[in-house]
Amino acid sequence: MKNNSKTPLILIDRDGTLIFDNKYHLGRTNDWKKKIKFLPGVINGIKKLKKIPNIKIYMVTNQPGVAIKDFKLLTKERAEQVAQYIEEKLNKRGAIIDGHFVCGHASPAYTKKRSEYKFHKKLICNCTCIKPNYGMVFDALKKEGLKKSNTNIYVIGDRISDIKTALKVNGKGIFVPFKGEKEEIEKINKIKNKNKKSIYLAKNFLDATKLIIKKEKR
Ligand SMILES: [Mg+2]
Ligand SMILES: [Zn+2]
User: Fold this and answer.
1) How close is the Cα of 138 to the center of ligand 2, in Å?
2) Which tens digit of pLDDT belongs to each residue from 150-163?
3) What is the distance in A from the centroid of ligand 1 to the CA of 162?
């Protein structure tokens, strides 16, 4: 089957990829709308991607803050509201995406790292939706009525967890640098040799989208 007869499905991370991430845990305060700022190239990049025939674009985001008891306002509903608002904001600017998925769980490893917080015990798990697991990718496939075998999956993100999510579904992981990028690149380099054709280090978001456009033109 020719590469371009498959449907391209793009999963884009939210914090540090689409918008600035200053450990806000958007939604935990009432002024969250003011804190949303798209990163350079995001609006243009999505507009360009959207020109690829049949392309589907989803935002997929881990929001472990939902599991943090101390963030009383940041419920699953609030996290969903924030994601919905970001999607609408993108769409209003002509950067049309097809939907979003939010994971509101925290992994046991995360709770250890953030021992200063109290967590909702019920929300601590290594659920299938939490990246680097691929649950949200399958949610998107299901919503679009697509099969993995007929889809070219790309995950764009600023963390190794985004890249690993792509690898788990035989997709391509495209890293875009944000804060803490050195540490992430080090982690990626450790797995890069084994996965040369599946991992790309982009300079920025626009660069990431150009890569996908090039691949899909073949
Ligand atoms: Mg991120
Ligand atoms: Zn989850």
Assistant:
1) 13
2) 999 999 999 999 99
3) 8
